[in-house]
Amino acid sequence: MLGRTVSHYRIEDCLGQGGMGIVYLATDVQLQRRVAIKFSAAGEDVERQRLQAEARAASRLTHPAIAHIYELGQAEDGQPFYVMEYVPGRNLSELLAAGPLEVTTTLEVMRALASALSEAHRHGVVHRDIKPANIRVTDSGEVKVLDFGLAKTSRRADASVHDGTLTASVVESGLIEGTPGYLSPEQAMGKPLDARSDLFSAGCVLYQCLTGKRPFVGDSLLESIMLTHGHAPPAPSLVNRSAPAWLDAIALRLLQKDPGQRYQSAEDLLADLEAGETRRGVFADRRLWLGATVVTAIAAVSAGWWFWLSRPYVPKPEATRWFEAGSSALRDGTFLKASKALGEAVRLDPDFALARAHLAEAWIELDDAGRAKDEMLRLQRSPQLVKRLGKAERLHLEAIEYLVTGDHRESIGRYRSMLALAAEKAQVYMDLGQACERAGDSVCALESYRQTVKLDPQYAAGHLRLGLLQRRMGKNAEAEKSLREAERLYQAGSNVEGLTEAQYGLGALQSERAEPARARETLEKALDTARMTGNAQQQVKILMQLASLGVKTADEQETRQRAQQAVDLARSAGAENLASRALISLGGAFFQTDKAEAERYYIQALDIARRNRAAATEARALLALGSLHSTTGQSGMAVGELEPAAGYFRRAGFHAEGFRASVLLGRTKRKDGDLEGAERVFTELLPETEKIGTREEQALLHEAIGQVYLLRGAFRAAARSFDRANELYQAAGNRPGTLFSLINRAKSTWRLGDTAGSRALLTEAETLAAGANLKSATGDAKMERVLIALSENRFADALAAANAVEAAGIPGGVEGRLRLESARALALAGTSRAVAAMALCGKLLHADTGAQRGWPMPEARLECAQVALAARDQSKAQSWAGQARQDFERSRNPEALWRSLALMALSGSPWAGRPAQAALGELEKLWDGQDFKRYVNRPDVKRLREQLGRMEGAS
Length: 955
Hints:
This protein is mainly α and 955 residues long. Among the domains are: 5-85, Phosphorylase Kinase, domain 1 (2-Layer Sandwich), CATH 3.30.200.20; 90-147 and 172-302, Transferase(Phosphotransferase), domain 1, CATH 1.10.510; 457-526, Serine Threonine Protein Phosphatase 5, Tetratricopeptide repeat, CATH 1.25.40. Helix content is 68%, strand content 5%. The chain is built from 48 helices and nine strands. The two termini are 64 Å apart.
């Protein structure tokens, strides 16, 4: 195997070999980095499947203390392999050969190991072979755990494995998973395993780090395993007096025979390690031994246990009542009420840490980051308050802290960890769903809310949040069912504000379904209820929904009246940020019908947000303005608004809004002709989107990158991007996205000279579009047929196709009209109607279309230069081709640049001929040989080259 190249990996050395695989050191010749590559030791199908299962399990884990999986592949002979991070340094077993480790080093190793196990167990992965040989310490002191997710040797129908009887043949045959001396008792007996088995093995590692000796050592493999069952090792400090007593307690608890007596999670182990490290000085001075769980009689007499004795914090009863009311309001979405209730809880009991954290959460929802950070800062200044919380409460506190700092993924992770500890899992799933929503992960949120109502069908807030999310996701029938159930439960429980939220959701749903009469009736009922309770936040939301309804029913008076009532009410309640949000919603209602009115409301919202330093609301107002100005062709303003909005959302961890702002920013730059800037925006966004984005988001981004490549003349790169977008859209079941990616692929295909392949793709797309009733896609495909006909010099067919596009509806607004008319002009010139064609070009190129700088103006100028040549107007031809040349130089499009230079030469520019030939030569160097050959044989390109050749021959 050494010296062989597998895929793009050159095998250089054997790093190790075991019963289940061989690991080699290799070099990735493409990326020029060293990797480790693992093959199965045996050639049986079951072993091949096992290797693939190993890689898939390990690839789910992303953690700094876990060696990463890069790729799962297959060699030419069909042998599977996977490629992982190569970790230079020494195995822990090599370090232990010199004896016990320093306590500081031991703690670094154990903290990394516990943290890595926590990540693995959270993903349902049990390592099964934790031992020093699988722990690597780099030269810089980093600790990495290797071989995660290993699916070990297959279970066979061997009674000796399953009946609790252990024999030497079983051990020697490899049916026992793991390494003797580090096996848990249940692992040695072949019983089902969970995370606690890894913790026993971790205890063996800790014991060896402290003492230099394994806790279970026999003269044979079988004896080592038997000692695991019947032998209780002495406390580490009795073997090595320099071992601290507090680590005795941790080590002996990990080595309990009964899994129920061990640590129940790696998080608990990590917490004790960190707490013990904090108190190290106390242990060194006092060496207090408190009996707790007795491991053995010897261990109890000689070592005992140290426990940190502190009474858990019990909040004051009156504060608890306000806390419960505020927490309920948070889940119902009535954040203003929540802030008031939780503020009262904190006033009554300043030491109530969870109440203070929930108050910070309420302020975040109300976009008051300053107050939220103040509350979390008070907690950080009082660590004694946090220390008195239980494990689940500490996780909850951390989840909220990550929310306040904008790290939504870490917040989600803490809620997931809480699920293993919480008695009331429905509420944790509820909080997890809300955290997923904040991160823009609708799929995670939907599943969490479904789990909430599954575990507690009487939980009204669960049905409410589920219904509201289903409405936003377009699942209208499911949304109505969920909201009706929430309405029923709130009514039965006499929860008036919850009832109002459910009615608001139903009214919004009915409005979206174009049922204005029912929507107005439902919303008026909700408004009456909100007024009765005096909940300003709910009244503002409902008034804004009624204002939006007024826009849909063309009732301008109602729209303005309701919107003004909402803004006035928000201001009178001292909720300026709520007023700002209301104005953004109002602007959105006018976006399609009256852009000037929409702009006015957006600017008001922006002013209020800036005065109140509400960063999130300011970013949303900027996003709204940027979207509007991009639509109206005011690209400079749009870019100035979208750049800070996108930056804020990405820094604050709002993936969905950050993605939307960034994509809109990139499209605006592309539309304005700044292709380099557009490409930079899209490519910088891609890694984050591939990591946490949906398939649709990833597809959209690849499509956007492909469109930039298309405009820069990089047709093959564009084709690859469009193919990737198509794969992702298909995987997501997104039919519109699939057909548009087919049309885009067709655009790159005919430009490379494959017109037959392009037509086949367009036919496939048109079939999909007809089935989905997507007229815009049909128009887009028809437009491309016009351009294909022009590329084949079939001008009469192009003219007929252009008329068909107009009859079906021109896609793409102002830009689409410009693209169609310039193509029509070229078709007219090709059918001997050059005078009409010139008149059309003059109208197009001198009109204020709002598309003077960006696409498709440069291509229109190039087509009109051809029209001018046909009309024998060399002056116009030279002028238009020269302007196009400047555009294509700026956008770095070598393919269009050579065409513009060729047309300049044909129109009498004496210096352009040689640069045109040089530009075509550069294109040949840049492109694949077959692509270039097909391109120069494209009829219109071939004709242009022939014209240029005749001109040069004549001169």
